[in-house]
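Loading example: each entry is read as two labelled lines plus one structure line.
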Amino acid sequence: MDATAGATTPPESEPARKRRVHGMLKLYYGLNEEGKSSDKPESLDPCDINGPHFDPEVFLNKLRKECSLAELMDQESCMVKQIRALDSDMQTLVYENYNKFISATDTIRKMKNDFKKMEDEMDCLSANMAAITEFSARISGTLQDQHAQITKLSGVHTLLRKLQFLFELPARLNKCLELQAYAQAVSSYRRARSVLKQYSHMPSFRGIQDDCHAIMDQLAQQLRQKFRDGGSSAKDLSECVELLLQLDEPAEELCDKFLSHAQTRLEANLRSLEAELREPTPGPIAASDLPASSTSKPSASPLAGTPTDLSSPTKNSFPSPTARTDILEFIDRGCNEFVSSLCLVIASYQELFINRPQEGDLASKNIPQMASGKLHSFVDALAARYFNLVERRIQEEKGVGDNSLLVRALDRFHRRLQAVSKLLPGSAVPSLGTEIVVRAARERIKQYLAALQSFYLDSLTDVRQALATPRISVGGAVVPPGGGILGGTAPGKDASPSLPELLASLSASILNQIKSVLASVHLFTAKDITFSNKPYFKGEFCSQGVREGLVVSFIKFVCQSSRQFCESAGDRGGSTPPALLLLLSRLCLDYETSTISYILTLTDEQFLAQHHAPVTPVTALCSEAREAAQKLLNHYVKVQGLIISQMLRKSVETRDWVNTIEPRNVRAVMKRVVEDTTSIDVQVGLLYEEGVRKAHSSDSSKRTFSVYSSSRQQVRYAPSYTPSAPMDTNLLSNIHKLFSERIDIFSPVEFNKVSVLTGIIKISLKTFLECVRLRTFGRYGLQQIQVDCHYLQMYLWRFVSDENLVHFLLDEIVGSAAHRCLDPAPMEQSVIEVICERG
Amino acid sequence: MEDDAPVIYGLEFQARALTAQTAETDAIRFLVGTQSLKFDNQIHIIDFDDENDIINKSVALHQAGEIRHIAASPADKSVLTTCYNKTSDSRVATCAAVWRIPKDWEAGSHESPDDSSHNPQSLELLCHLDNIAHGNTACVLWEPMSDGKRVITLADNHLLLWDLQQSSTQATLSSSATLEGKGQIKFTSGKWSPHHNCSQLATANDTAIRGWDLRSMSQIYCIENAHGQLVRDLDFNPNKQYYLASCGDDCKVRFWDVRSINEPVKSLEEHSHWVWSVRYNHSHDQLVLTGSSDSRVILSNMVSISSEPFGHLVDEDELSDAEESHQEERNRAPLQDSIIATYEEHEDSVYAVEWSSADPWLFASLSYDGRLVINRVPRALKYRILL
């Protein structure tokens, strides 16, 4: 309530006032009229007389400041009225509460009276209970004697029952024996056995014991017989074993017997497998007699007996060395017969000896341990023999035609061994089996590598044949004398249009072969093959096996065999056709630029290689291929150069240069040299790019030479006429050499046509020079050389990168000839030109 | 250890014949025969003073013709043979003769080295080794390490053994052999083996190398296709009796064991043109010298097939401290077959190389332009072999 509001508002009606008083009281006692307080937030105003933070000082000050005297008077009277009303309210409330307190006091007094009555009744109840207890004690005391007697009697009764059982035991056992209820007999005997043993000092019991023994021995005998027969079912067998074990039969002996019995059966399986392995193929009929193989080639059986049946082995898509059962069939048989029966044996053995619930004294003998030891050695021994057979069979698998069969066979083999591993967790058998698979895979990679290599060599032979096939020369290709030496170039020239085709087909077929081999090998890592997730097949097989062992080795082999061509050919006088060298060089170069990285990328993709071990990097292979290409091309240059050299050498050596006639035309051998060079140019141009020439090479060069030879050459051996200056010629040529670069005759060439041709021409001209130096010339001899050199100059400049080289060498030749000339009278340049133009 | 610079000597004429004076073992002396069509040819006797790097030369005239091949007697310093071109009536024939160098050549050279070429004396002809019927003589071979009484000439396809009598003034043909075959067969080169009591000879013709037994004058082996092209030169290993080096137009130098002639023991391909000459060092046969028409001389170290394959053991104590570390390094890595040095002093084809007969570490090479270069084995290698 607002003090100011209260002061200003007229007195309210009675109920409203009352409610307000109640509210204030409630507020005072911390009670809340539901929700009321929420819509009337407590004011923090110290002037709010009803608020909790009311400060009288502040309030008074405020009033004093704000109000006029009249208002203060009003306020005072209003406040007095309110205090009075509050006082009366308080009195009313005190009165009401007093009344309620009085009625509560009355109620408590009444309750006190009631409780006193209940206490009396409880006392009465406890007295009664005590009386009952006393009575019951008295009754049980009376009955005790009789109870003891009854117990004793019942004990006697049981004993008698037991005795009766004992006396009846022999008869019962006999009966059981008759009925072959061995289990019952054994359990009866076992129940009696300890008792009989304990009382065996009493003759009567002893008799019983002896009888029982006899009977039980008989029974054991029968059981053993049954066990030995083996024909009985597994369940019978296990029952049998169990009973025998209960009869204290030594478990070890039983294990041995069981295993030896199993062994005979398994060995029979092995023997049949072995027989299959050893069995030589008598012929197609035997092959078709095999029921399984007849299914693989259905046409064979109906044809058997007819003369055409000789063809049946060829129908076998997989001509393994011995065309009997294929490997899949063999493995199948091994799995179905040997492995499955082995699993059976293992399972039943474990059922019998290892997984049995142990009871009583049997547990102490530690049978499972002994038995499992025996089982392991048994399985290991047999598996070793089986593996031996399988491995022998796999080794016979040499044909590389269809890999899927082998992979499937290995998969089956491996899969079936998983069963063994499940049955026999600690066994080494599955890991040995995996090893066999791994070995087979390794072996397979080797075989594929060998196949690839032989394929490569075969294709090379094909190429060689294609190159060597004499084509009927078209368009009157000149067959010059001494064609024997040039046998290499002649077919190259004629077959030249097919050179790029040969290269393309060679590289394509090699690539295809690699791809197909990769595809075949990829079967080993297919997802549905159980062994593909073994660590070997995930890691080493991909990286070391396929990548390194197969692909990298093959590429290396290609490079290496190429290099061998270079080394061997020199000795045997160019047994390798030069065209082949050129082709291989291009092949290696292609490998370097693209093929190697393509193949390796392909391999890495297919085999998702995680290369743990370091692998040969692509760059190393590329550089090897490049090296091989370079070597081959160098060798090509050398071989071609030597062929031309040989011609030139023979032509210089065999002629009498002193007594020759005046030159009338260019010697045939020079024409031949130009022809051959042209054909080499064409041949190289088919496979290699043009290359760069020095800039000044142009049509005008021919003219330059004419000028050069007429002017400078004249100057050069002009001094020879004057005997007074013998040094000048040397001096001049030496000065000339000082300014020209040293020429490496057999130097590595670049991978382009111009460089190759330059190399060949260098070799040829240098030979010419050396040969000229060894001869003595007459006047016409020198002139002939002049003519020849001019002719060479006319035609050879266009092939080389730097025509100055040709100039220099030819100049040297003419110079040397002039030196070696008895009567050096050079021919007029114009005459030389005329002769050369005439051809 | 700096190596001595090469010593270069220039001849006025072109030349391709070079030999060491075999009988001389004290002074370093080479004989060079010139090749000139128009002037009198000369024999240059070149003395090399190792101490001062000075060359003393004296010249003797060889008027008979241009010299293709020259060989010095193993017994008499002043006796030599030449093969020379004789041109007469527009016919060129290669003949051979035994000559004696005029007596005072040695004195003359020392008195006035400048004058020596001024007034050269002529060689004294002792006897001709000719037989026109046998054709052009390719080379003359003295019996090695003997008293200089026997020579062999190779003429076309004939192998002729001469006995020199009366101080070499008379030569009688004691025996001969002829190589028959289709085509024109010409011996290009030959070498008299110093082994087997000097009873064997090796010759080269075309691409084949043949061995001959001089007692029966018959062929004992034949290496067909020893080189891809013409075989230019041969040399016997002085210490291993069955080993033979050859070189040829296929730029290769090959080493053969004549007991198994199917494959070369070793093959080198270092030159970039024909190899014209190959020489084993007389004392250390791992050192092989080759000269080629690529104007280079190459000295190779063929340790693996030498008579001292692992070098000598080195006594560490003798080494100075400074050398020790270097030496250890060497010991760890045994010597490999390798090129020791390539000499590029020549500017024309090198047709002959020769070791000195007096100093095993010194050799001469001769190029067509008449330049004679005297070189030494690098000192580092020399000490490595010696120590």
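Chain B is about 5% helix and 45% strand.
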